[in-house]
Fold this sequence. Notes:
The complex is a heterodimer.
Chain A: E1 2-6, E2 9-13, H1 27-35, H2 43-59, H3 65-70, H4 76-82, H5 87-94
Antiparallel strand pairs in A: 1-2
Chain B: E1 2-7, H1 11-23, E2 29-35, E3 39-41, H2 56-59, E4 60-62, E5 71-75, E6 78-82, E7 87-90, E8 95-97, E9 100-103, E10 107-109, H3 117-120, E11 125-126, H4 131-143, E12 147-153, H5 163-177, E13 184-189, H6 199-211, E14 214-217, E15 222-226, E16 231-234, E17 239-241, E18 244-248, E19 251-253, H7 255-259, E20 284-286, H8 299-317, E21 330-337, E22 340-346, E23 355-359, E24 363-367, H9 372-389
Parallel strand pairs in B: 1-2, 1-9, 2-5, 9-20, 11-18, 12-13, 12-18, 13-14
Antiparallel strand pairs in B: 3-4, 6-7, 7-8, 10-19, 15-16, 16-17, 21-22, 23-24
Helix pairs in contact in B: 1-8
Amino acid sequence: MGQLAYNDTMIEVNDDGFLVNADDWNEDLAGVLAQGEDITLTDEHWKVINFMRQEFAENGKVPSIRRLKKAGGIPIKDIYRLFPDGPAKKAAKIAGLSKPEGCV
Amino acid sequence: MKKLLILGGGMAGTLMANKLSKELDGRTWSVTVVDQDDVHYYQPGYVFIPFGTYTEKDVVAPKQRFMPHNVDLIISPIESIDPGKRTVSLAHGRKLDYDLLVIATGSEIRPGETDGLAEAMQHNAHDFYTLEGATRLASVLERFEGGKMVVSVTEMPIKCPVAPLEFAFLADSYFRERGIRNKVDIEYVTPLPGAFTKPVASHMLSDLLESRGIALTAEFDTGEVDGDRGKVMSYDGKEVDYDLLVTVPTVMGSELIERSGMGDELAFVPTDPRTLQHREYEDIFVIGDATDLPTSKAGSVAHFEGDILIENIKHHIAGEPLDPAFDGHANCFVESGGGKAMLIDFNYDVEPLPGTFPVPGVGPFALLRETRTNHWGKLGFKWIYWNILLKGRPLPIPTRMSLAGKRTDMLQTVS
Protein backbone atom coordinates (compact mmCIF):
# COMPACT_ATOMS: atom_id res chain seq x y z
CA MET A 1 0.00 0.00 0.00
CA GLY A 2 1.14 3.55 -0.66
CA GLN A 3 -0.15 7.08 -0.85
CA LEU A 4 -0.13 9.70 -3.53
CA ALA A 5 -0.07 13.39 -2.61
CA TYR A 6 -2.83 15.23 -4.47
CA ASN A 7 -4.24 18.72 -3.75
CA ASP A 8 -3.40 18.69 -0.01
CA THR A 9 -4.90 15.21 0.40
CA MET A 10 -3.37 11.76 0.29
CA ILE A 11 -4.87 9.28 -2.17
CA GLU A 12 -4.52 5.58 -1.39
CA VAL A 13 -2.78 3.50 -4.06
CA ASN A 14 -1.66 -0.14 -4.04
CA ASP A 15 1.91 -1.42 -4.45
CA ASP A 16 1.67 -1.09 -8.23
CA GLY A 17 0.35 2.47 -8.03
CA PHE A 18 -3.29 1.66 -8.91
CA LEU A 19 -6.05 3.55 -7.09
CA VAL A 20 -7.44 1.62 -4.13
CA ASN A 21 -10.76 3.50 -4.24
CA ALA A 22 -12.14 3.89 -7.74
CA ASP A 23 -14.25 6.84 -6.52
CA ASP A 24 -11.09 8.91 -5.95
CA TRP A 25 -10.64 9.22 -9.72
CA ASN A 26 -11.27 12.43 -11.60
CA GLU A 27 -9.89 13.88 -14.84
CA ASP A 28 -7.40 16.06 -13.04
CA LEU A 29 -6.08 13.13 -10.96
CA ALA A 30 -5.70 11.17 -14.23
CA GLY A 31 -3.20 13.81 -15.30
CA VAL A 32 -1.25 13.29 -12.08
CA LEU A 33 -1.28 9.51 -12.51
CA ALA A 34 -0.10 10.00 -16.11
CA GLN A 35 2.79 12.20 -14.98
CA GLY A 36 3.92 9.33 -12.78
CA GLU A 37 4.29 7.32 -15.99
CA ASP A 38 6.02 10.19 -17.84
CA ILE A 39 2.97 10.67 -20.02
CA THR A 40 1.36 14.01 -20.87
CA LEU A 41 -2.29 13.41 -21.71
CA THR A 42 -3.51 14.47 -25.15
CA ASP A 43 -6.87 14.04 -26.88
CA GLU A 44 -5.60 10.75 -28.30
CA HIS A 45 -4.89 9.49 -24.76
CA TRP A 46 -8.32 10.62 -23.61
CA LYS A 47 -9.99 8.66 -26.38
CA VAL A 48 -8.41 5.49 -24.96
CA ILE A 49 -9.07 6.39 -21.32
CA ASN A 50 -12.71 7.28 -21.92
CA PHE A 51 -13.32 4.12 -23.91
CA MET A 52 -11.75 2.02 -21.14
CA ARG A 53 -13.87 3.62 -18.45
CA GLN A 54 -17.01 3.22 -20.51
CA GLU A 55 -16.21 -0.47 -21.16
CA PHE A 56 -15.57 -1.06 -17.49
CA ALA A 57 -18.83 0.61 -16.52
CA GLU A 58 -20.73 -1.56 -19.02
CA ASN A 59 -19.00 -4.93 -18.63
CA GLY A 60 -17.20 -4.75 -15.28
CA LYS A 61 -14.01 -5.85 -17.00
CA VAL A 62 -10.84 -3.89 -17.75
CA PRO A 63 -10.65 -4.14 -21.56
CA SER A 64 -7.67 -5.85 -23.18
CA ILE A 65 -5.59 -4.25 -25.94
CA ARG A 66 -7.38 -6.51 -28.41
CA ARG A 67 -10.73 -5.25 -27.12
CA LEU A 68 -9.57 -1.63 -27.55
CA LYS A 69 -8.81 -2.47 -31.17
CA LYS A 70 -11.91 -4.53 -31.95
CA ALA A 71 -14.57 -2.60 -30.08
CA GLY A 72 -12.89 0.79 -29.72
CA GLY A 73 -11.38 0.96 -33.19
CA ILE A 74 -8.03 2.08 -31.81
CA PRO A 75 -5.06 0.63 -33.77
CA ILE A 76 -2.77 -1.43 -31.51
CA LYS A 77 0.34 0.43 -32.69
CA ASP A 78 -1.24 3.71 -31.54
CA ILE A 79 -1.92 2.29 -28.11
CA TYR A 80 1.74 1.30 -27.74
CA ARG A 81 2.85 4.73 -28.95
CA LEU A 82 0.57 6.51 -26.48
CA PHE A 83 1.30 4.27 -23.49
CA PRO A 84 4.79 2.82 -24.07
CA ASP A 85 6.05 -0.27 -22.15
CA GLY A 86 3.02 -2.16 -20.94
CA PRO A 87 0.13 -0.13 -22.39
CA ALA A 88 -2.70 -2.28 -20.96
CA LYS A 89 -1.44 -1.76 -17.43
CA LYS A 90 -0.51 1.92 -17.82
CA ALA A 91 -3.73 2.97 -19.48
CA ALA A 92 -5.79 1.10 -16.86
CA LYS A 93 -3.87 2.82 -14.07
CA ILE A 94 -4.38 6.30 -15.51
CA ALA A 95 -8.05 5.52 -16.14
CA GLY A 96 -8.41 4.72 -12.45
CA LEU A 97 -9.27 1.07 -13.12
CA SER A 98 -7.76 -2.04 -11.57
CA LYS A 99 -4.79 -3.90 -13.00
CA PRO A 100 -5.92 -6.00 -15.98
CA GLU A 101 -6.63 -9.61 -14.94
CA GLY A 102 -3.47 -11.66 -14.94
CA CYS A 103 -3.42 -14.36 -17.56
CA VAL A 104 -3.06 -17.97 -16.54
CA MET B 1 -38.32 -36.63 -24.49
CA LYS B 2 -36.06 -33.73 -23.54
CA LYS B 3 -32.90 -33.06 -25.48
CA LEU B 4 -29.46 -32.29 -24.16
CA LEU B 5 -27.09 -31.23 -26.90
CA ILE B 6 -23.30 -31.08 -26.55
CA LEU B 7 -21.37 -29.06 -29.13
CA GLY B 8 -17.83 -30.39 -29.46
CA GLY B 9 -16.58 -33.92 -28.90
CA GLY B 10 -13.09 -33.11 -27.65
CA MET B 11 -12.02 -33.95 -24.14
CA ALA B 12 -14.59 -31.76 -22.36
CA GLY B 13 -17.54 -32.75 -24.58
CA THR B 14 -16.67 -36.44 -24.44
CA LEU B 15 -16.31 -36.61 -20.67
CA MET B 16 -19.60 -34.75 -20.26
CA ALA B 17 -21.32 -37.18 -22.66
CA ASN B 18 -20.11 -40.06 -20.51
CA LYS B 19 -21.19 -38.45 -17.23
CA LEU B 20 -24.58 -37.38 -18.58
CA SER B 21 -25.34 -40.78 -20.09
CA LYS B 22 -24.96 -42.27 -16.62
CA GLU B 23 -26.60 -39.53 -14.58
CA LEU B 24 -29.61 -38.51 -16.67
CA ASP B 25 -32.70 -40.70 -16.85
CA GLY B 26 -32.64 -42.20 -20.35
CA ARG B 27 -36.45 -42.38 -20.39
CA THR B 28 -36.79 -38.60 -20.21
CA TRP B 29 -33.52 -37.25 -21.63
CA SER B 30 -31.59 -37.91 -24.85
CA VAL B 31 -27.93 -36.87 -25.19
CA THR B 32 -26.45 -35.88 -28.55
CA VAL B 33 -22.89 -34.78 -29.36
CA VAL B 34 -22.01 -32.87 -32.55
CA ASP B 35 -18.45 -32.48 -33.83
CA GLN B 36 -17.04 -31.75 -37.26
CA ASP B 37 -14.27 -34.34 -36.96
CA ASP B 38 -14.64 -38.07 -36.31
CA VAL B 39 -11.09 -38.29 -34.92
CA HIS B 40 -10.26 -37.57 -31.28
CA TYR B 41 -6.89 -35.88 -30.80
CA TYR B 42 -4.80 -36.33 -27.66
CA GLN B 43 -3.50 -32.76 -27.63
CA PRO B 44 -1.20 -33.13 -24.57
CA GLY B 45 0.88 -35.50 -26.72
CA TYR B 46 1.57 -32.94 -29.46
CA VAL B 47 4.63 -31.49 -27.67
CA PHE B 48 6.42 -34.86 -28.00
CA ILE B 49 5.86 -35.24 -31.74
CA PRO B 50 8.51 -32.73 -32.97
CA PHE B 51 11.17 -34.73 -31.08
CA GLY B 52 10.09 -38.12 -32.41
CA THR B 53 8.97 -39.39 -28.97
CA TYR B 54 5.38 -39.72 -30.21
CA THR B 55 4.02 -40.03 -33.72
CA GLU B 56 0.53 -39.57 -35.07
CA LYS B 57 -0.63 -43.02 -33.93
CA ASP B 58 -0.04 -42.05 -30.27
CA VAL B 59 -2.42 -39.11 -30.42
CA VAL B 60 -5.41 -40.17 -32.55
CA ALA B 61 -8.38 -42.48 -32.03
CA PRO B 62 -11.91 -42.64 -33.44
CA LYS B 63 -14.28 -40.42 -31.44
CA GLN B 64 -16.99 -43.06 -31.50
CA ARG B 65 -14.86 -45.34 -29.30
CA PHE B 66 -15.28 -43.00 -26.32
CA MET B 67 -19.00 -42.39 -26.70
CA PRO B 68 -21.43 -44.40 -24.58
CA HIS B 69 -23.90 -46.51 -26.61
CA ASN B 70 -26.87 -44.36 -25.54
CA VAL B 71 -25.31 -41.12 -26.82
CA ASP B 72 -25.91 -40.08 -30.42
CA LEU B 73 -22.76 -38.77 -32.14
CA ILE B 74 -23.34 -36.59 -35.21
CA ILE B 75 -20.30 -35.79 -37.36
CA SER B 76 -21.03 -32.48 -39.08
CA PRO B 77 -19.76 -28.91 -39.23
CA ILE B 78 -21.84 -26.58 -37.05
CA GLU B 79 -23.01 -23.35 -38.64
CA SER B 80 -24.40 -21.40 -35.70
CA ILE B 81 -26.24 -21.37 -32.39
CA ASP B 82 -29.48 -19.42 -31.95
CA PRO B 83 -29.81 -19.23 -28.15
CA GLY B 84 -33.08 -17.28 -28.36
CA LYS B 85 -34.81 -20.05 -30.35
CA ARG B 86 -32.82 -22.83 -28.67
CA THR B 87 -31.67 -24.25 -31.99
CA VAL B 88 -28.34 -25.17 -33.55
CA SER B 89 -27.84 -25.09 -37.32
CA LEU B 90 -25.60 -27.72 -38.86
CA ALA B 91 -24.25 -27.84 -42.40
CA HIS B 92 -26.67 -28.58 -45.28
CA GLY B 93 -29.59 -26.86 -43.59
CA ARG B 94 -30.05 -29.43 -40.83
CA LYS B 95 -31.36 -28.00 -37.56
CA LEU B 96 -31.32 -29.41 -34.03
CA ASP B 97 -33.32 -28.05 -31.14
CA TYR B 98 -32.37 -28.46 -27.50
CA ASP B 99 -33.69 -28.12 -23.98
CA LEU B 100 -30.18 -27.86 -22.55
CA LEU B 101 -26.99 -26.97 -24.41
CA VAL B 102 -23.40 -27.70 -23.35
CA ILE B 103 -20.83 -25.70 -25.32
CA ALA B 104 -17.51 -27.55 -25.47
CA THR B 105 -16.16 -26.19 -28.73
CA GLY B 106 -12.62 -25.66 -27.45
CA SER B 107 -9.97 -23.27 -28.70
CA GLU B 108 -7.70 -23.15 -31.74
CA ILE B 109 -4.69 -21.28 -33.06
CA ARG B 110 -5.29 -18.35 -35.42
CA PRO B 111 -2.04 -17.47 -37.22
CA GLY B 112 -4.03 -15.03 -39.39
CA GLU B 113 -4.41 -12.69 -36.39
CA THR B 114 -0.72 -11.67 -36.65
CA ASP B 115 0.60 -9.79 -39.68
CA GLY B 116 2.93 -11.96 -41.73
CA LEU B 117 2.67 -15.07 -39.54
CA ALA B 118 0.51 -17.20 -41.86
CA GLU B 119 2.97 -16.45 -44.71
CA ALA B 120 6.02 -17.20 -42.52
CA MET B 121 4.42 -20.52 -41.55
CA GLN B 122 4.79 -21.57 -45.17
CA HIS B 123 8.57 -21.74 -44.71
CA ASN B 124 10.53 -20.89 -41.53
CA ALA B 125 7.85 -20.55 -38.82
CA HIS B 126 6.06 -23.50 -37.24
CA ASP B 127 3.50 -24.44 -34.64
CA PHE B 128 3.08 -27.60 -32.60
CA TYR B 129 -0.55 -26.95 -31.56
CA THR B 130 -1.94 -28.86 -34.53
CA LEU B 131 -1.11 -32.41 -35.53
CA GLU B 132 0.00 -31.20 -38.98
CA GLY B 133 2.21 -28.48 -37.46
CA ALA B 134 3.82 -30.81 -34.92
CA THR B 135 4.42 -33.52 -37.54
CA ARG B 136 5.94 -31.06 -40.00
CA LEU B 137 8.16 -29.67 -37.23
CA ALA B 138 9.54 -33.17 -36.55
CA SER B 139 11.05 -33.33 -40.03
CA VAL B 140 12.25 -29.71 -39.81
CA LEU B 141 14.07 -30.39 -36.52
CA GLU B 142 15.60 -33.55 -37.94
CA ARG B 143 17.20 -31.48 -40.69
CA PHE B 144 18.14 -28.55 -38.43
CA GLU B 145 21.93 -28.43 -38.12
CA GLY B 146 22.33 -25.20 -36.15
CA GLY B 147 21.37 -21.56 -35.91
CA LYS B 148 18.97 -19.53 -33.84
CA MET B 149 15.72 -21.10 -32.74
CA VAL B 150 13.14 -18.77 -31.24
CA VAL B 151 10.30 -20.25 -29.21
CA SER B 152 7.59 -17.62 -28.86
CA VAL B 153 4.21 -16.95 -27.36
CA THR B 154 2.39 -14.48 -29.60
CA GLU B 155 -0.39 -13.36 -27.27
CA MET B 156 -1.96 -14.47 -23.98
CA PRO B 157 -4.03 -16.39 -23.06
CA ILE B 158 -2.89 -19.55 -24.82
CA LYS B 159 -4.08 -23.12 -24.54
CA CYS B 160 -1.82 -25.06 -22.12
CA PRO B 161 0.38 -22.15 -21.00
CA VAL B 162 3.28 -24.45 -20.03
CA ALA B 163 3.54 -26.10 -23.48
CA PRO B 164 5.94 -23.59 -25.08
CA LEU B 165 8.23 -23.86 -22.02
CA GLU B 166 8.13 -27.64 -22.32
CA PHE B 167 8.97 -27.30 -25.99
CA ALA B 168 12.02 -25.13 -25.16
CA PHE B 169 13.28 -27.56 -22.50
CA LEU B 170 12.73 -30.61 -24.71
CA ALA B 171 14.49 -28.84 -27.62
CA ASP B 172 17.50 -28.19 -25.38
CA SER B 173 17.66 -31.93 -24.50
CA TYR B 174 17.07 -32.94 -28.10
CA PHE B 175 19.94 -30.85 -29.47
CA ARG B 176 22.24 -32.08 -26.66
CA GLU B 177 21.46 -35.69 -27.56
CA ARG B 178 22.26 -34.92 -31.19
CA GLY B 179 25.55 -33.35 -30.08
CA ILE B 180 24.77 -30.01 -31.74
CA ARG B 181 23.55 -27.97 -28.75
CA ASN B 182 26.66 -25.74 -29.07
CA LYS B 183 25.55 -24.83 -32.60
CA VAL B 184 22.02 -23.84 -31.56
CA ASP B 185 20.98 -20.65 -29.78
CA ILE B 186 17.58 -20.91 -28.14
CA GLU B 187 15.61 -17.79 -27.19
CA TYR B 188 12.24 -17.82 -25.40
CA VAL B 189 10.06 -14.81 -26.26
CA THR B 190 6.89 -14.04 -24.29
CA PRO B 191 4.50 -11.14 -23.60
CA LEU B 192 4.54 -12.09 -19.90
CA PRO B 193 6.88 -10.31 -17.45
CA GLY B 194 8.73 -13.62 -16.90
CA ALA B 195 8.72 -17.27 -17.94
CA PHE B 196 5.24 -17.91 -16.55
CA THR B 197 2.11 -16.20 -15.35
CA LYS B 198 2.40 -16.43 -11.58
CA PRO B 199 5.35 -15.09 -9.47
CA VAL B 200 6.71 -18.19 -7.67
CA ALA B 201 6.45 -20.50 -10.70
CA SER B 202 7.69 -17.73 -13.01
CA HIS B 203 10.80 -17.25 -10.89
CA MET B 204 11.59 -20.97 -10.78
CA LEU B 205 10.92 -21.53 -14.47
CA SER B 206 12.99 -18.46 -15.43
CA ASP B 207 15.89 -19.94 -13.42
CA LEU B 208 15.39 -23.25 -15.18
CA LEU B 209 15.56 -21.58 -18.61
CA GLU B 210 18.79 -19.87 -17.56
CA SER B 211 20.32 -23.14 -16.31
CA ARG B 212 19.66 -24.64 -19.74
CA GLY B 213 21.28 -21.73 -21.55
CA ILE B 214 17.95 -20.55 -22.99
CA ALA B 215 17.74 -16.75 -23.30
CA LEU B 216 14.52 -15.17 -22.01
CA THR B 217 12.98 -12.11 -23.68
CA ALA B 218 9.97 -11.03 -21.64
CA GLU B 219 7.28 -8.36 -22.14
CA PHE B 220 7.45 -8.79 -25.90
CA ASP B 221 4.06 -8.29 -27.56
CA THR B 222 4.36 -9.76 -31.03
CA GLY B 223 2.78 -7.52 -33.66
CA GLU B 224 4.28 -8.88 -36.85
CA VAL B 225 6.43 -11.69 -38.22
CA ASP B 226 8.66 -11.24 -41.27
CA GLY B 227 9.54 -14.72 -42.49
CA ASP B 228 11.70 -13.49 -45.38
CA ARG B 229 14.00 -11.53 -43.10
CA GLY B 230 13.59 -13.96 -40.17
CA LYS B 231 12.30 -11.39 -37.69
CA VAL B 232 9.65 -11.27 -34.99
CA MET B 233 8.60 -7.67 -34.31
CA SER B 234 6.77 -6.24 -31.33
CA TYR B 235 4.09 -3.53 -31.45
CA ASP B 236 6.53 -1.09 -29.86
CA GLY B 237 9.31 -1.61 -32.39
CA LYS B 238 11.52 -4.29 -30.78
CA GLU B 239 12.88 -7.07 -33.00
CA VAL B 240 14.10 -10.61 -32.45
CA ASP B 241 15.98 -12.42 -35.24
CA TYR B 242 15.45 -16.08 -35.96
CA ASP B 243 16.49 -18.87 -38.28
CA LEU B 244 13.75 -21.18 -37.05
CA LEU B 245 10.62 -19.86 -35.33
CA VAL B 246 8.44 -22.16 -33.24
CA THR B 247 5.49 -20.09 -32.13
CA VAL B 248 2.19 -20.41 -30.35
CA PRO B 249 -0.02 -18.13 -32.47
CA THR B 250 -2.98 -16.25 -31.00
CA VAL B 251 -5.45 -18.74 -29.51
CA MET B 252 -9.17 -18.09 -29.90
CA GLY B 253 -12.45 -19.89 -29.39
CA SER B 254 -14.24 -21.59 -32.26
CA GLU B 255 -15.31 -19.60 -35.34
CA LEU B 256 -18.76 -21.03 -34.68
CA ILE B 257 -18.92 -18.87 -31.54
CA GLU B 258 -17.98 -15.78 -33.60
CA ARG B 259 -20.59 -16.60 -36.25
CA SER B 260 -23.19 -16.92 -33.51
CA GLY B 261 -22.15 -13.59 -31.94
CA MET B 262 -21.73 -15.33 -28.61
CA GLY B 263 -18.08 -14.67 -27.79
CA ASP B 264 -15.81 -11.96 -26.39
CA GLU B 265 -13.05 -10.41 -28.50
CA LEU B 266 -11.22 -13.77 -28.50
CA ALA B 267 -14.43 -15.73 -29.21
CA PHE B 268 -14.52 -17.20 -25.72
CA VAL B 269 -18.00 -17.65 -24.22
CA PRO B 270 -18.98 -15.55 -21.16
CA THR B 271 -19.29 -18.12 -18.38
CA ASP B 272 -20.01 -17.92 -14.67
CA PRO B 273 -16.62 -18.75 -13.09
CA ARG B 274 -18.12 -20.77 -10.22
CA THR B 275 -21.22 -22.50 -11.68
CA LEU B 276 -20.15 -22.83 -15.37
CA GLN B 277 -23.56 -21.59 -16.51
CA HIS B 278 -23.67 -19.16 -19.44
CA ARG B 279 -23.81 -15.62 -18.06
CA GLU B 280 -26.88 -14.73 -20.10
CA TYR B 281 -28.74 -17.96 -20.98
CA GLU B 282 -29.82 -20.26 -18.15
CA ASP B 283 -30.19 -23.28 -20.43
CA ILE B 284 -26.60 -23.09 -21.70
CA PHE B 285 -23.53 -24.40 -19.86
CA VAL B 286 -19.93 -24.04 -20.97
CA ILE B 287 -16.92 -26.27 -20.27
CA GLY B 288 -13.25 -26.51 -21.22
CA ASP B 289 -11.27 -24.16 -23.45
CA ALA B 290 -14.46 -22.55 -24.82
CA THR B 291 -15.05 -20.57 -21.59
CA ASP B 292 -13.69 -17.10 -20.85
CA LEU B 293 -12.64 -18.15 -17.33
CA PRO B 294 -9.38 -16.84 -15.89
CA THR B 295 -7.81 -20.27 -15.45
CA SER B 296 -5.64 -22.42 -17.71
CA LYS B 297 -7.04 -23.85 -20.90
CA ALA B 298 -6.01 -27.42 -20.09
CA GLY B 299 -7.43 -30.93 -19.92
CA SER B 300 -7.10 -31.08 -16.14
CA VAL B 301 -9.31 -28.00 -15.88
CA ALA B 302 -11.97 -29.61 -18.09
CA HIS B 303 -11.81 -32.72 -15.87
CA PHE B 304 -12.36 -30.72 -12.66
CA GLU B 305 -15.05 -28.59 -14.34
CA GLY B 306 -16.83 -31.78 -15.38
CA ASP B 307 -17.24 -32.84 -11.75
CA ILE B 308 -18.93 -29.54 -10.94
CA LEU B 309 -20.91 -29.23 -14.18
CA ILE B 310 -22.62 -32.62 -13.94
CA GLU B 311 -23.94 -31.68 -10.50
CA ASN B 312 -25.08 -28.25 -11.70
CA ILE B 313 -26.90 -29.68 -14.72
CA LYS B 314 -28.73 -32.05 -12.34
CA HIS B 315 -29.52 -29.11 -10.03
CA HIS B 316 -30.81 -27.09 -13.00
CA ILE B 317 -33.07 -29.93 -14.18
CA ALA B 318 -34.41 -30.37 -10.64
CA GLY B 319 -35.06 -26.62 -10.37
CA GLU B 320 -32.55 -26.28 -7.53
CA PRO B 321 -29.99 -23.49 -7.08
CA LEU B 322 -26.62 -24.14 -8.74
CA ASP B 323 -23.58 -24.90 -6.61
CA PRO B 324 -20.89 -22.18 -7.08
CA ALA B 325 -18.22 -24.82 -6.51
CA PHE B 326 -15.66 -24.46 -9.30
CA ASP B 327 -12.42 -22.94 -7.98
CA GLY B 328 -10.38 -22.74 -11.20
CA HIS B 329 -8.35 -25.84 -10.26
CA ALA B 330 -5.60 -26.73 -12.76
CA ASN B 331 -2.95 -29.42 -12.52
CA CYS B 332 -0.25 -29.64 -15.18
CA PHE B 333 2.92 -31.61 -15.75
CA VAL B 334 5.78 -29.54 -17.18
CA GLU B 335 8.32 -31.59 -19.11
CA SER B 336 11.74 -30.11 -18.38
CA GLY B 337 13.92 -32.33 -20.56
CA GLY B 338 16.47 -35.03 -19.72
CA GLY B 339 13.75 -37.43 -18.61
CA LYS B 340 12.45 -35.15 -15.88
CA ALA B 341 9.34 -33.04 -15.34
CA MET B 342 7.79 -30.64 -12.88
CA LEU B 343 4.19 -30.56 -11.70
CA ILE B 344 2.11 -27.48 -10.92
CA ASP B 345 -1.23 -27.36 -9.10
CA PHE B 346 -3.18 -24.12 -8.67
CA ASN B 347 -6.56 -22.38 -8.86
CA TYR B 348 -8.16 -18.92 -9.27
CA ASP B 349 -6.76 -17.71 -5.96
CA VAL B 350 -3.62 -19.70 -5.16
CA GLU B 351 -0.63 -19.65 -7.49
CA PRO B 352 1.52 -22.78 -8.11
CA LEU B 353 3.70 -23.51 -5.05
CA PRO B 354 6.44 -26.05 -4.28
CA GLY B 355 5.43 -29.12 -2.28
CA THR B 356 4.29 -32.71 -2.70
CA PHE B 357 1.26 -34.09 -4.53
CA PRO B 358 -1.31 -35.57 -4.12
CA VAL B 359 -0.40 -36.95 -0.66
CA PRO B 360 0.97 -34.15 1.58
CA GLY B 361 4.61 -34.78 2.57
CA VAL B 362 4.71 -38.01 0.56
CA GLY B 363 3.96 -37.39 -3.10
CA PRO B 364 4.79 -39.38 -5.15
CA PHE B 365 4.87 -36.24 -7.29
CA ALA B 366 6.92 -33.14 -6.53
CA LEU B 367 5.40 -29.72 -7.14
CA LEU B 368 7.56 -27.11 -8.91
CA ARG B 369 10.60 -29.38 -8.75
CA GLU B 370 12.14 -31.53 -11.48
CA THR B 371 11.93 -35.26 -10.83
CA ARG B 372 11.95 -38.46 -12.88
CA THR B 373 8.73 -39.58 -11.19
CA ASN B 374 6.96 -36.47 -12.55
CA HIS B 375 8.17 -37.39 -16.05
CA TRP B 376 6.75 -40.91 -15.71
CA GLY B 377 3.56 -39.26 -14.48
CA LYS B 378 3.38 -37.22 -17.67
CA LEU B 379 3.95 -40.26 -19.87
CA GLY B 380 1.43 -42.28 -17.81
CA PHE B 381 -1.06 -39.48 -18.31
CA LYS B 382 -1.64 -40.68 -21.86
CA TRP B 383 -3.14 -43.94 -20.56
CA ILE B 384 -5.14 -42.06 -17.90
CA TYR B 385 -6.46 -39.68 -20.56
CA TRP B 386 -7.73 -42.36 -22.94
CA ASN B 387 -9.03 -44.71 -20.25
CA ILE B 388 -10.19 -42.59 -17.32
CA LEU B 389 -10.57 -38.91 -18.19
CA LEU B 390 -12.48 -39.29 -21.47
CA LYS B 391 -14.82 -41.78 -19.83
CA GLY B 392 -15.59 -39.18 -17.17
CA ARG B 393 -14.35 -41.51 -14.44
CA PRO B 394 -12.99 -40.17 -11.13
CA LEU B 395 -9.27 -39.67 -10.47
CA PRO B 396 -7.76 -39.99 -6.96
CA ILE B 397 -7.28 -36.21 -6.99
CA PRO B 398 -9.72 -33.85 -5.27
CA THR B 399 -11.83 -31.70 -7.60
CA ARG B 400 -11.09 -28.60 -5.55
CA MET B 401 -7.49 -27.55 -5.02
CA SER B 402 -5.96 -28.41 -1.65
CA LEU B 403 -3.30 -26.40 0.19
CA ALA B 404 -2.06 -29.48 2.07
CA GLY B 405 1.54 -30.36 1.22
CA LYS B 406 2.20 -26.93 -0.29
CA ARG B 407 4.75 -24.29 0.74
CA THR B 408 2.13 -21.71 1.64
CA ASP B 409 4.83 -19.64 3.36
CA MET B 410 5.96 -18.67 -0.15
CA LEU B 411 2.59 -17.14 -0.99
CA GLN B 412 2.74 -13.46 -1.63
CA THR B 413 -0.17 -11.49 -0.32
CA VAL B 414 -2.25 -10.28 -3.18
CA SER B 415 -3.36 -6.70 -2.82
